[in-house]
Structure formats: C-alpha cells, structure tokens
Amino acid sequence: MTSPFDRLPSCVAGAMQGDIAVLRLSRPDKRNALDDTMIAGIEMFFDGLPAETKAVLLHAQGEHFSAGLDLTELTVRKAPEAIAHSRNWHRIFRQIEFGHVPVIAVMHGAVVGGGLELVAACHIRVAERSVYYALPEGSRGIFVGGGGSVRITRLIGVSRMMEMMMTGRTYDADQGFAIGLSHYVMEDGKGLEKGLELARQVGVNAPMTNFALIQALPRIAESDPDSGFVMESLMSAIASTEPEAQARLEAFLAKRAPKVLRR
Length: 263
Prior knowledge:
The structure is a single chain. The chain is 47% helix and 15% strand. It has eleven helices and nine strands. The protein has helices at residues 36-47, 79-97, 114-120, 137-140, 148-156, 158-167, 173-179, 191-203, 207-222, 225-240, 243-253, and strands spanning 12-17, 20-25, 55-60, 103-107, 110-112, 124-128, 132-134, 170-172, 184-186. The strands form two sheets. It has a six-stranded mixed beta sheet with strand order 1-2-3-4-6-9, sandwiched between helices. The chain has a three-stranded mixed beta sheet with strand order 5-7-8. It is of the alpha/beta class and 263 residues long.
C-alpha cells in the first residue's frame, strides 16, 4: 500500500497514525542539521498532507532534535544567494505556522539555531528533560535566517533573544519552559507519547476553531486594538454559527458534554 510520504528524501520520514500525520527528522549522524534537502523534505511533507489530517506531530531521530543550520551551506554562497536561501526557509516555515492543522513539536537534546527557528513555527512545543536551547549565531559571525528574529522574539522578547545570540548562552528544559520556549516538560522518553496525546486532543477541536487559532489569533495579537477587536468579532461570529459549533453547544447545554475541570 502506497503512502502519501513515499517520495520524501531519506533525511525525513512521514507516516500517518490514524488522522495524525507524523514527521520525523532523520539525519541523526549530522545531529539533524538542517540542509537544503531536509528543508525541501519538510516542504514536501506539508504539501502532501492527506485531506483527513487533523494535526501534525514533529519529532526527530537520534540523540538530538536539531543542531541547526548545516553551516557548510553558508560557505559557498554570495549575498543574493544567501538572501534567497533565507527567504526559502521563511516560505516553508510559514506553511507550518499558517497551515490548516495544528503542529506539535517534540524536542530532545540540542534545539539550536535553525532547529529552534523550526519549532518556533509550531503551535505547541513539548520538551524532554535532555533538551538544551541555544542561539550561537554571535560566535559564528552570522545572524538568524529562518524567521527566528520574528518568531523566537515573540516567544521570549527582544532583550533575551539578543542576550542569547550575543553570549551563546544555553537554556535547559526548565529554563526554556520558564521563558516560553516550550509548553510542557516531560521526562526523557516520554515526550513522543505526550505529543501524540496532544495531537489527538487538538485534532478533535472544531475545524473552524483551529482555523481561527492558527490564522486569526496571531494576526489579532499583532494588529492595533481596534482592528483586532473587529477581527475577533468577525471570527467569533463565523465560528459560533458553524453547524458543528451549534451541535457542540447544544450538547453542553443538554449536559451531554463534559464541563471544564481542574486537572
């Protein structure tokens, strides 16, 4: 039986677990450093998501999630080529951030440079205790190029982003959680199980609600207040008048749906 991911390059692997699509970075001998082939494979994976996909789970093979950009690719480029290379990452990571399904990243080991830029484009991030984060661009004489100056700065703020890049400081799993680099911290070996649980949980949300959270919420947050309020009203009206939303509301009012409880 053929898979929609059969044509992916060997440095990435895709599979379906029910209606959850699973993407694995598979270049462990290079600590899953992101080269052009791997980036193209990530694009092919998201381009080829089956229509029934409800969420995506992203993880990595080997001891590390990703040690970042494969720096050998920067040594042969002139400025125009380097700009095009960066913009290609922007385009592909935007597919993740503003796609049609939630993306959950499960991280372990090194989440460095471009690897951190990749997970910053995801919607939910699960860290195992082995995780360490770093942005060593300052010591390499380079600058982030995969959208990190926008996405990571949103997560942790300009001052902390600047300090990380200037000093090369690393953050462990608990420190990363405290500043917003992850939403969950799990014991080593437990991250994938948690990620799959979350993928299934968010996958059963009403599609219009997930659409609003992925597409509208980030834009509302970055707009001026009055524009944000208008967009919120429109999105709220569209979502709440969907037939599925009406059915879910009726089930709750009829006491057929669970209430929110402290967990």
